[in-house]
Amino acid sequence: MEDIVLDREYKSSLRCLKIGDKVAELPIIQGGMGVGVSRSSLAGAVAAEGGVGVISTAQIGYDEAGFEKDQAGCNLKAIRKHIWMAREIAKGKGLVGVNIMVALKHYKEHVKEAVECGADVIISGAGLPMNLPELVPEFCRTKIAPIVSSKRAANLILKMWAHRYNRTADLIVVEGPEAGGHLGFSRDQLAHRDEMDFDQEIRDIIACKKEYEEKFGREIPVVVAGGIFDRKDIDHAMALGADGVQIASRFVATKECDADERYKQAYVNARKEDVQIIQSPVGMPGRALCNPFMKLVENGRIPVKKCYNCLEKCNPGQVPYCITKALIDAVEGDVENGLMFCGANVGRIDKITSVHELMRELAEG
User: Which residues form a coiled coil (predicted)?
Assistant: First the structure.
């Protein structure tokens, strides 16, 4: 491995992460977390440490004036604002990317806005981003990265992109069953995840993408996400052949995280047994903290009083609760009555630290 000496008082034996013509000094991507958990403060701080800071566009404008009446406009305004602010914080270091869910009602608009604002990379999941290449010009500065959880999904996307657009991915994020938020697995798979050989799935995806590397004459780095907690996990992912990792939950418990302090403290206080698998209004299973809100949902539907136009496939009269309201309530500090997504290892988090200290720990081991 090549040694990279950083100007942040620590060094790492980790290789840099190359995404096309872009380079992050550390192969660590901070996972995108909405609503409002990862915006410019967190993403900018991670980029400033040489990593890839990621802004989630899911209802990113929830605190903009006029959001109650114009969610779409406020979200686009906030995308522009937070990409610019993250770049200011990063001061030319690392990369600033965005996470845009396929399930969003205004998915295309979010992608186009991120491209116009010069996002370094768009990471897209919660569905298969089949038309992402047509929204992102091939020779613009923005790179494209699908999130997949299986070789089948990876091959389907790469094959479709090659056939329809003569294009391939600039990066692939492989998200495992230990991840937080929306998950690309069935509830049965998640219930028996200890029986899964996901290491082999990662190896299979790495083998699958080689065909497209040869076809397009470029490298397609693979980043492993889900359950990555410390340097031991990073080294394990690298040993499988990965080029980097994506970590989300640990970045919540940082001073720079954009969520309310009560949200961060809920992560610190969480125990392993507080984590549960839920059915999200997005239509996918998700992993979240058990709290009074989730117990209320289990006992029956919470009527939706207002639609915030967030999801493409959402019937306010049928969904179990409004995911936008639940996520906004939580990020603003009402941790008893809001939805708090988390990773499987949240119970191991025992303190709030800084992004600098966390990145140093991950880099040095």
Answer: none
Q: Mind listing the pLDDT tens digit for each residue in 43-52?
A: 999 999 999 9
Query: Cα separation of 246 and 160, whole Å?
Result: 25
Contact 251, 358 (CB under 8 A): yes
Can you say whether residue 332 is alpha, beta or left, with left for phi > 0 and alpha for psi between -120 and 50 degrees? alpha
CB 268 within 8 A of CB 351: yes
| Strands 275-279 vs 285-289: parallel, antiparallel or unpaired | antiparallel
Express each pLDDT in 61-107 by its tens digit: 999 999 999 999 999 999 999 999 999 999 999 999 999 999 999 99
In sequence order, what DSSP letters do the residues of 315-363 get, joined into one string? -TTTSSS-HHHHHHHHHTT-TTSS--B--TTGGG----B-HHHHHHHHH
> How many other CB atoms sit within 10 Å of the CB of residue 301?
12
Q: Which domains does the chain have, with CATH numbers?
A: 14-260+348-364 (3.20.20.70), 269-346 (no CATH)
Q: Which secondary-structure segment (H or E) carries 72?
A: helix 71-90
SS (H, E, C) 221-286: CEEEECCCCCHHHHHHHHHCCCCEEEECHHHHCECCCCCCHHHHHHHHHCCHHHEEEEECCCCCEE
The C-alpha atoms of residue 31 and residue 24 are separated, in whole angstroms, by: 15
Query: How far apart, in whole angstroms, are the C-alpha atoms of residue 286 and residue 290?
Result: 12
**How many residues are present in the chain?**
365
For 112, residues 6+ apart whose C-beta sits below 8 A from its C-beta are 135
Distance CA 337, CA 64 (A): 22
